[in-house]
Amino acid sequence: MIEGGRIRLKTWQQAAVAVGSAVGALLDPRRADLIAALGETTGKPAFERVLQKMKSSPEGRAVLLERPRVLSANVGHAWDLPANTFGAAYARFMGSRNFSPDDRPPVRGVPTHGGRYIQYNIYGNLFEVSRKYVPPIRPVGRGAYGIVCAAVNAETGEEVAIKKVGNAFDNRIDAKRTLREIKLLRHMDHENIMSIKDIIRPPQKENFNDVYMVSELMDTDLHQIIRSNQPLTDDHCRYFMYQLLRGLKYVHSANVLHRDLKPSNLLLNANCDLKIADFGLARTTSETDFMTEYVVTRWYRAPELLLNCSEYTAAIDIWSVGCILGEIITRQPLFPGKDYVHQLRLVTELIGSPDDASLGFLRSDNARRYVKQLPQNPKQNFSARFPNMSPGAIDLLEKMLIFDPNRRITVDEALCHAYMAPLHDINEEPVCTRPFSFDFEQPSFTEEDIKELIWRESVKFNPDPPVY
């Protein structure tokens, strides 16, 4: 379990200040300092007074009831608190006599389309879902694509995550990414891969611009855990890596490359269950189109991608896994490059400059010349560079972070590595029974063509339109 230790008085004081600042910023930036000052006074009682102060205003109640994950994230990130400090206090406060069911402010939804849909204003974001998704509806994350809210499926009683992709068809690239992710998640069925439960059927086929994707609700992601003060043991690290490799084996067996593995795309529950998410950049192993810089996170990119190599393999995902392994241990990104040149320099400073034999995969003479003119670096001693990493983890890391993709360890070999021995069971590591095909993506596709395909996907989940 991911749990913090006993909460000390100093921690309560920090938490009070943190919550005060976060609440102040959420309610009224001009009052942030005042509320923070309240939290500095007497530790735990003051922290609870901050929560009590929130309860005394309608805006504060709304934050407490509908934004706990957002508030908790703000607290943890800004003040480096143990992962469950706010969560534990929040649960006690909300479960005590401070709040009764009558205190809950109603989530105001506006019926639309004859009552078949309900539109919510989630702090300035319009969220229109079919009637089966009911309050409490609260934001749990956001990104360039849009916003993610938690809601309850009234038919199953299950709490789910609903990702709204706003203006999904404004440009062809983003529209293709959304369609690709839907198709891939529908194709895959694995414990360590995020599942898709629904595509909310748009009210009108002819006139829709937003896509709502429904999936299981997870508690956090690996990026948040790494950034927290939560202690991570070697067992934590091994379990995270095993699940990541187990899921990646399934992905690669479907002839798919994820291409954007990073801590924020690895979702976690409090019991440490891990699921790979965000397949919008995935490709088949036979495709060779290059990933554009503005989309993909540079820090986790393999050398062959940094060097504009037109042909790449599943080894690019293994490099990313190695970067994640090192980040779990050090709590910092291994290669936080500012640009391509800096990125390659950081890579060679750790793993050493490649020799001629290690550059054989590069077909471009210009790329080979470029690498050779870089400052020459010896490989660092990984045991000295990562003193808190177990010998088994170091050996696995060294086999993942190899410049030549042809010499890099494969996902199957990684699962068989000695570091994974306590968890490895080939009978519990399934593969995909049929390869995935991107044949649905035609070069001539327009945004309207993609919209039609996404409409069809929503109808597969919802053959009949919602009824009042």
UniProtKB/TrEMBL annotation:
It comes from the Eukaryota. Activated by threonine and tyrosine phosphorylation. Gene3D superfamilies: Phosphorylase Kinase, domain 1 (3.30.200.20), Transferase(Phosphotransferase) domain 1 (1.10.510.10). Its cofactor is Mg(2+). ATP binds at residue 164. GO terms for biological process: ubiquinone biosynthetic process. Its EC number is 2.7.11.24. GO terms for molecular function: ATP binding; MAP kinase activity. Residues 134-420 form the Protein kinase domain. Keywords: ATP-binding, Kinase, Magnesium, Nucleotide-binding, Phosphoprotein, Serine/threonine-protein kinase, Transferase. Belongs to the protein kinase superfamily. CMGC Ser/Thr protein kinase family. MAP kinase subfamily. This is Mitogen-activated protein kinase. It comes from Abrus precatorius (Indian licorice). The gene is LOC113849218.
